[in-house]
Write a structure and sequence with these properties.
- The chain has 233 residues and is mainly α.
- It has a domain at 6-115.
- It has eight helices and no strands.
- The chain has helices at residues 6-34, 37-60, 67-79, 91-111, 120-132, 140-159, 163-195, 222-232.
- Helix 1 (6-34) runs antiparallel to helix 2 (37-60).
- The longest helix is centred in the C-terminal third of the chain and has 33 residues, at 163-195.
- The chain starts with 5 loop residues before the first helix and ends with a helix.
C-alpha cells in the first residue's frame, strides 16, 4: 500500500472530486454536439462511472482510507436517480446505485475490516428499489426508502452491531412505538369522552297530588259529537 502525506492526500481528493464533475460534463457536451442529447448523457454516465471506479481504486491503495472518500461513491450515486432522466427506463439508475454501493462497501472494508458485512444488503436494496420504484410516477417513495435505508446503514456503521443484534433492537423499537401509539389513541378517546357535552338530565318524575291537579272539562266522545252535529243540521 502507498503512503501519502497530508498534502498528497488533499491533492488526490481534489483531483478525484473534480474528475467526477468536470470530465462527465465535457463528455456530455461532446456527445451532444457531435450526435444528440441521449449520446451525451450516455457518454457522461460512462465517464462518471470510469472516474468513480478509478478514484475508488486509488483510495483503496491508500494505507489509511478516510471515511468521506470511502462513502463518496455511494452518496453520489444515490443522487443520480433524481437527475433528469434522458435515457428511458430505470436500468442506468440501478446500475449507478449498485456500482456506488459495491465500491463504498469495499472501501469501508479496506478502511475497517470489522465493518459488518450485512451493511451490503441495505446498500444493494437501494439499487433494487430504484429498479422497481420507477413504477410509481413520483420520486417521493424513492426519497423515503433511501432515507430509511441510509439511516439503517449509518446506525450499523456507528454501532458495529451484528445483524441479529440490530434486528432485535429494531423489533424492540417497533413494539415500543406500537404500544405508545395504542396508549396515545386510548388517551385521545378518553379525552373526547370527557369533552363531549352530555344530554339534558331528566328530573326524576314524582307522582302528582290529586288535589293539585286542575279539573279538566271532559270532552264529549265521538258518537255524542256526531249526534250533536246531526241535530244542528
Amino acid at each position: 500500500m502507498f503512503k501519502f502525506t497530508t498534502k498528497g492526500k488533499i491533492i488526490i481528493y481534489l483531483v478525484a472530486y473534480l474528475s467526477l464533475i468536470v470530465f462527465p460534463i465535457i463528455a456530455y457536451y461532446v456527445g451532444w454536439i457531435g450526435w444528440d442529447v441521449r449520446t451525451g448523457v450516455k457518454a457522461a454516465l460512462f465517464t462518471f462511472l470510469f472516474w468513480l471506479v478509478s478514484g475508488s481504486a486509488v483510495f483503496y491503495l491508500m494505507e489509511d482510507v478516510p471515511m468521506v472518500p470511502a462513502s463518496l461513491p455511494f452518496l453520489l450515486c444515490l443522487v443520480y436517480p433524481f437527475l433528469p432522466d434522458y435515457i428511458p427506463g430505470p436500468v442506468e439508475d440501478t446500475v449507478a446505485v449498485a456500482v456506488g454501493a459495491i465500491l463504498t462497501f469495499i472501501l469501508w472494508k479496506r478502511r475497517k475490516p470489522a465493518t459488518p458485512s450485512w451493511l451490503l444488503a441495505p446498500m444493494l436494496l437501494t439499487a433494487v428499489y430504484t429498479l422497481f420504484g420507477a413504477l410509481i410516477p413520483t420520486m417521493i417513495d424513492e426519497a423515503v426508502v433511501y432515507v430509511l435505508l441510509v439511516s439503517l446503514i449509518i446506525f450499523g456503521l456507528l454501532t458495529g452491531l451484528t445483524f441479529k443484534a440490530v434486528y432485535i433492537r429494531l423489533f424492540s423499537i417497533i413494539v415500543f412505538l406500537s404500544k405508545a401509539a395504542e396508549k396515545l389513541q386510548a388517551n385521545i378517546e378518553k379525552y373526547r369522552v370527557k369533552k363531549t357535552p352530555a344530554g339534558p338530565i331528566l328530573a326524576k318524575s314524582e307522582p302528582l297530588d290529586p288535589s293539585e291537579m286542575e279539573e279538566v272539562e271532559e270532552l264529549p266522545c265521538a258518537p255524542e259529537v256526531a249526534q250533536a252535529e246531526g241535530q244542528q243540521v
